[in-house]
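WARN no homologs supplied; continuing
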Amino acid sequence: MTDKKKRRPSNGKAGTLVIIGGHEDHDGDRVILKEVASLVPNGRLVLATIASHEPDGYLEKYQKSFGELGIKEVVELYVNDRLEAAHEKKISALANVSAVFFSGGDQLRITSQIGDTPIDERVHEIYEAGGIIAGTSAGASVMSDTMMVKGPNAASFRIGHIRMAPGLGLLPNVIIDQHFAERGRIGRLIGAVSQN
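OK structure emitted
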């Protein structure tokens, strides 16, 4: 276990994690996004689109949805490569923020681009200071110490067919799978739990 995984909030309390399976409603009642918006105290949220290989359109979609729910400012954080995760301009997007929302895509892209970087450290600081870290789909999967990366959607699993990798470590001793009922992932989740 790395030091990052061992650390605990200095004030004894952590923030709030909002773990969304995916396909949250952007047009109807927006129950999930409404809940996220209600937790953002200062009306400013960072949308981390890091999981996407092509994030065009994400910012506008979330700005519209969250804007209609009272969030005054949605700022995008995207890194093209791991080196950018150390650039001051990218890190400064997380200054004076108490809410970060990780969008969907490829969870391995999130951890490979920002894991153990100043951005990762800042996300942990926000959470440990009582902030909100939300994530949908891939953005949900990265919250655990060990995350599901790949595995078949089948009723049963075979040893070796499930791929796991280190997550961001915000939630220990848990494995998060997304699009769970929609894609019939009970078998791979049981397999992941049994392997860990």
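The domain at 3-146+164-172 is CATH 3.40.50.880 (Rossmann fold).
OK
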